[in-house]
Fold:
Amino acid sequence: MQPMVNLALRAARNAGQDLVRRLDRFDASQSSDQEKAKFIADCTIGLEKGIIFELKKSLPEHNFYGRETGDNITDEKQPTWQVCVIDEVSNFRVGIPSFAIIISCLQNGKTEHAIMVNPMNGDEFSASRGRGTQLNNRRIRASNVNTLEDSIIGYTLPRSSNEEAFDQRQRLQSLMVKSYDLRNIGSNALSLAYVAADRFQGALLSNVDEFALTAGSLIASEAGCLLADASGQPQLKAPANLVVSNPRLLKALVALK
Structure:
């Protein structure tokens, strides 16, 4: 495993342990909406700063960009680290244990390393460009299933009401009768990682933000997945509505109407 991946994993693991401790101490049932919002803000901002501080100690010349804290770009020639402490906040807010800490390292606009940790169950996904994807230090590969009837497909619902969102909902309706089953775990980031790990055989995901897309696309592609937009084009830009699966299944998912 690459030294920078080990460094990022350690930082994500420490933040995850802190996050779980904070959750254990926080009584959501006895808290007002304002107290819940403050708790979430304290977690996301505080732990994001902690991850960046830990990375900076070993990589002082690198750049850093946090979802909550913004960017700290000092030298564009140096790698840039993207950090998101909680994907997905909606799950975290109500106690659903399906969210991830995301850390990515970009060089010249390309993701070179990606880390995704679910602190609630200990899943640690990691990938480096050209070196494959690992889950808890074991190499993983996407499924080779080639029919929707044998596939569990992950999905997230679009949040808008435009034509593209309508088309996405139509595809999901088609999947209800064509696939073996559907699963919505709420987190776009984890859904991408689940396809990489063959927990899902494919996924139709909506409104994938840049943090989930940057890390998730490398984790998925290094495990043998293909990613495309609804028309089958591989160029994706956040916020993205995308299809991800192994190469055998992608055509069937893109063809959904």
Remarks:
- The mean pLDDT is 91.
- The longest strand covers residues 110-118.
